[in-house]
Design brief:
Strand content: 15-25%
CATH architecture of the largest domain: 2-Layer Sandwich
Number of domains: 3
CATH topology of the largest domain: Heat Shock Protein 90
Largest sheet: 8 strands, mixed
Number of helices: 13
Shape: elongated
Strand order of the largest sheet: 9-8-7-10-6-5-11-12
Radius of gyration: 36 Å
CATH superfamily of the largest domain: Histidine kinase-like ATPase, C-terminal domain
Helix content: 25-40%
Oligomer: single chain
Length: about 500
């Protein structure tokens, strides 16, 4: 334990003596920092890879074995002064020189304590580094460190530079007491390392880690603020299962994901859970463990305000895309159902006759030339039915045409409200209500939805001929619906 002490000072202004007390720091706290600073021990791999990125490495190889983890890079390496700086607790070196010399990368490290994250998973780690004609290995053994109460020095063994083929650094972790799954390590590297940066590759057990392509609607973001640029790309997916790591936008600082966030808006707008992507805001202040932001800072307040505005605009687009998706789905359903009904009518001419539809051009000609069609009885409509008919082709409307001979009947699916009828016929248009609770319930399953649309379509068709004779209409519907739903596939 080291201490600082000062001589007593005489304060002449107040005629009193001011004493001083020593400031002490117990070296065992370094162990506590390593074990408690990071919420997950897997963070140590992210930290080691990011150190390689800061050192201008173009290749980093992570090897995870049963009893050892090795992280090897081909960066600039460290000489004796560099190694001393590496083990300087809370070093400000990277903040003072925040750009790498070769590739001019924005350096990720800030606090100089990330290396101690290794202590959360192992009892011993070695750092071997070469820079030109200097090479050495420094060993940190937790057990030896704790036993030597007043000893603050780490052993450094000089190496022959030619043994190490190129400049670079290798960190070996031994005495592991935590296991790592390769899938978890890969996910953390993808999130916590600037994997898309130029001249930078990361390999995990000899497999190159590449950024995953996620299919979906892509929304570019580029916003200015008084603190810096906010840019990136949001992706709207069709299913949350496609999002690795769970819903949310990856908020990145210097290419590293700090956290996923939807800024609390997902509570009132659950459709935002289909949103992922990444947003870069290098000006954001982060916590020392790199797992969150300093939320009471002006920069974060501005960022939060801008992003909530972005999500409000995105919500409008999401609603539009969801309507288009619903429209395509309904169009496929009604077209498939209409085809089934047509096939049933063609196979059963007597059913077509019962509902007043000819099945051939000859019948149509005979019908129009040989008889005077009676006027259809006027049906009194309810207010809900009137609203339904008066609404013509809304933005989500789907229209399909059922044509028998020269006579055609249209089927229109649209939003008419929960209180409107399930279906209704006006003239030669059959309306089906997308908002009716039964339709909404059956829409969750494609086959059940086809049955439901077939039921409504055959119901309205059979009521066309004689709407007052319900029994005859239902008997005809039963026969037509049966043939519509029978699988006629050979």
């Amino acid at each position: 334990m080291e201490s600082l002490a000062f001589s007593p000072l005489l304060c002449q202004n107040y005629s009193m003596t001011i004493l001083t007390i020593p400031i002490t720091f117990d070296k065992s706290h370094l162990i506590t920092i390593g074990e408690k600073l990071y919420s997950e021990s897997i963070e140590l791999i992210r930290e080691l890879v990011n150190n390689a990125y800061d050192a201008d490495a173009t290749s980093v190889r992570v090897t995870i074995a049963e009893d050892e983890i090795i992280v090897q890079d081909n960066g600039s390496g460290m000489d004796e002064q560099g190694l001393r700086q590496y083990f300087n607790i809370g070093s400000t070196e990277k903040r003072q020189h925040n750009r790498s010399p070769k590739f001019n990368r924005i350096r990720i490290g800030e606090f100089g304590i990330g290396k101690f994250a290794t202590l959360a998973a192992c009892g011993r780690f070695e750092v071997t580094s070469r820079k030109d004609n200097f090479a050495a290995t420094v060993t940190f053994d937790k057990e030896e460190w704790e036993q030597s109460n007043n000893h603050w020095h780490l052993p450094m063994r000089l190496e022959a530079p030619e043994i190490l083929k190129t400049n670079g650094t290798t960190v070996k972790l031994n005495k592991l007491y935590k296991k790592f799954k390769l899938d978890d390590v890969e996910r953390r590297i993808l999130e916590g390392v600037p994997i898309k940066a130029e001249h930078f590759e990361v390999y995990l057990n000899n497999k190159k880690i590449s950024a995953r392509f996620l299919a979906g609607q892509r929304i570019p973001v580029f916003e200015g603020s008084e603190y810096g640029i906010i840019s990136g790309e949001l992706i709207l997916v069709s299913n949350t299962n496609f999002i690795v790591g769970g819903p949310g936008i990856e908020i990145k600082v210097k290419g590293v994901t700090i956290k996923r966030d939807l800024f609390g808006m997902e509570i009132n707008f659950p459709q935002l859970n289909l949103l992922t992507g990444e947003i870069h805001a290098d000006f954001l202040p982060i916590t020392s463990d790199r797992t969150g932001f300093i939320k009471d800072s002006p920069g974060y307040h501005e960022f939060n305000k801008v992003m909530r505005g972005v999500l409000q605009r995105v919500l409008h687009d999401i609603k539009y895309w969801q309507k288009q998706k619903e429209k395509k789905k309904n169009r496929r359903i009604v077209n498939a159902t209409v085809d089934k009904v047509l096939n049933a009518l063609k196979k059963n001419p007597e059913l077509a006759s019962l509902i007043g539809l000819p099945v051939s051009p000859e019948e149509e000609k005979q019908k129009t030339e040989g008889e005077i069609l009676p006027k259809k009885p006027r049906v009194k409509r309810t207010p809900a039915q009137k609203r339904m008919v008066s609404k013509i082709l809304g933005p989500s409307a789907v229209v399909a045409r059922l044509k028998i001979g020269k006579k055609g009947i249209s089927c229109q699916l649209d939003h008419f409200g929960q209180d409107s009828p399930e279906s209704y016929t006006e003239s030669n248009i059959i309306y089906i209500n997308l908002d009716h609770p039964l339709y909404v319930r059956e829409a969750k399953n494609r086959e059940r939805l086809i049955v439901n649309v077939a039921r409504l379509l055959t119901q309205e068709l059979t009521l066309l001929k004689n709407p007052k004779n319900a029994r005859q209409a239902f008997d005809t519907q039963s026969k037509l619906l049966k043939d519509t739903l029978i699988d006629t596939t050979p």
